[in-house]
């Protein structure tokens, strides 16, 4: 009665096998969540490093004083 010809490799989850569909969606959701979490965690250290480099360049160019440099560095 149920034709699973459209998605035979999924076991016909769209045609009544909701457990398989839920399992596949949960796995895909977990992978996406993990990827987003890793991308946010990985960028924070790089952003801080880049910010300190910019701060050092501004100090070297004379755009900011040593006091301003120390103050801004403590904020970062």
Counting DSSP E segments of at least 2 residues, the number of strands comes to 0
Largest sheet: none
Poorly predicted tracts of residues? none
Mean pLDDT across the residues is: 75
What does this structure look like?
The protein is mainly alpha-helical. It has one domain (8-75). The chain is built from 2 helices and no strands. It is rod-shaped. The mean pLDDT is 75.
How do the strands and helices of this protein lay out in sequence?
Elements (H helix, E strand, L loop, with lengths): L17 H44 L4 H10 L1
Helix pairs in contact: 1-2
Spell out the key features of this protein.
single chain; 76 residues; 71% helix; mainly alpha
Concise summary:
The chain is built from 2 helices and no strands.
